[in-house]
Write a structure and sequence with these properties.
Length: 339
């Protein structure tokens, strides 16, 4: 079993992945500056796993702090989640995104090279396919130009990692291209806890359900889709967390840089999310149609055949599970990790 450094491990996807790592017998060292997360998530992960993990509060742009971690712990591999992820914010403050996501990743990779740790799993995004490719997206497609600065940082880091692996065959890097992560651990102890007004659909829906927001605005009803609303490939966060463990184990036995799509392959519309949430959870979600949101694509979903063939991974949770588990988390924690 391996000792894994998890940057951004206190966040939404990171905390679920830490739990899967502990449950599969790995040791975990979390490195997170807590700019968008809470230490309570890590306390709950340890309680659920009934195993401890190590936590260091630090920033991936702090070279000395990173060197210290690699000095103090005999790390075998890194899963890199740390970064900023709000698409709208990335249009307003691009330099903060370039600094955190691109310069931060560079700092981490340099520290890994100094420490001679060459196994890395990176959180990428379906956004790297850009607007020119047609769904379903598969990994052989050329990268497109992402429609926003956040997506651009993911594309740049992917390219930077590919070139790094090409130059030194010691590297073994997984690029996991997530589609739309939703849901929460069945216990309802950990889940997505956005600060302020949620940008993403699912936390907005659950905050309407719990009474924190009055109604959902559905952005656009004239897209060329079956019901006129956008379609996305929603993936349960526990399925996504499991993909990280499998990608990590794959990387411990391979070299080079390899991309995998992590999605269900099923396009689900925004309106279907609202309607299915109401049916599964027995709660009405008041809503209105609003104008299209800039930068949204009509429809995107994954071809995840490669992840199935090479990682033996496939999504197991249904849409109903995703919506029930999202609600279970929000219902039990109306204010997220805040008391
Ligand atoms: P999150 O904000 O919940 O988690 C990110 C974590 O990184 C947080 O705990 C935050 O405190 C930490 N962090 C941010 N900047 C840091 C820094 N400079 N140094 C140390 N820690 C830092 O987000 P998430 O949804 O769990 O996403 C995790 C990763 O997956 C991100 O890289 C994100 O871009 C990527 N991703 C997310 C989605 C999504 O829809 N959630 C989709 C595709 C890709
Ligand atoms: N939507 C609404 N109302 C809301 C929020 C969202 O109608 O209040 C709609 C959006 O217009 C979109 C769909 O719900 O059609 C999904 O929107 P999200 O913001 O939840 O997700 P995106 O598909 O826009 O973005 C996600 C991740 C990004 C990633 C991108 C591509 O949040 O990190 O997928 O992978 F870059």
């Amino acid at each position: 079993m391996a000792k894994i450094l998890v940057t951004g491990g206190a966040g939404y996807i990171g905390s679920h992945t830490c739990l899967e790592l502990l449950n599969t017998g790995h040791e975990v060292v979390v490195f997170d500056n807590l700019c968008n997360s809470s230490k309570i998530a890590l306390e709950r992960v340890q309680a659920l796993a009934q195993k401890p993990l190590n936590f260091i509060q630090g920033d991936i742009r702090d070279m000395q702090a990173l060197d210290q971690v690699f000095h103090d712990y005999k790390i075998d591999a890194v899963i890199h989640f740390a970064g900023l992820k709000a698409v709208g914010e990335s249009q307003k403050i691009p330099l903060a995104y370039f600094d955190n996501n691109i310069a931060g990743s560079l700092c981490l990779v340099q520290a890994m090279e100094r420490a001679e740790v060459f196994q890395l799993v990176f959180s990428s995004s379906a956004t790297v396919y850009g607007e020119l490719n047609q769904a379903p997206y598969h990994e052989e497609m050329p990268l497109g130009m992402p429609t926003n600065n956040y997506g651009y940082t993911k594309m740049v880091v992917e390219q930077l990692l590919e070139k790094t692996a090409l130059a030194n065959p010691a590297w073994s890097i997984a690029l996991l291209r997530y589609f739309n992560p939703v849901g929460a651990h069945k216990s309802g102890e950990i889940g997505e806890d956005p600060q302020g007004i949620p940008n993403n659909l699912m936390p907005f829906v659950t905050q309407v359900a719990v009474g924190r927001r009055s109604k959902l605005a559905i952005f656009g009803q004239d897209y060329p889709t079956l019901d006129g609303t956008c379609e996305r490939d929603f993936i349960h966060v526990v399925d996504l967390a499991k993909a990280h463990v499998l990608a990590l184990e794959n990387r411990l036995n391979h070299t080079g840089c390899r991309a995998w799509n992590i999605g269900t392959g099923k396009p689900i519309s925004v309106l279907a999310i609202k309607n299915t949430f109401e049916r599964v959870n027995g709660i009405e979600i008041p809503f209105e149609f609003a104008p299209r949101r800039t930068g949204d694509l009509a429809s995107f979903y994954a071809d995840s055949t490669r992840a199935y063939q090479e990682l033996n991974w496939k999504a197991e949770y249904s849409l109903e599970d995703m919506l029930a588990d999202s609600w279970n988390w929000q219902r039990k924690n109306p204010n997220g990790f805040n008391p």
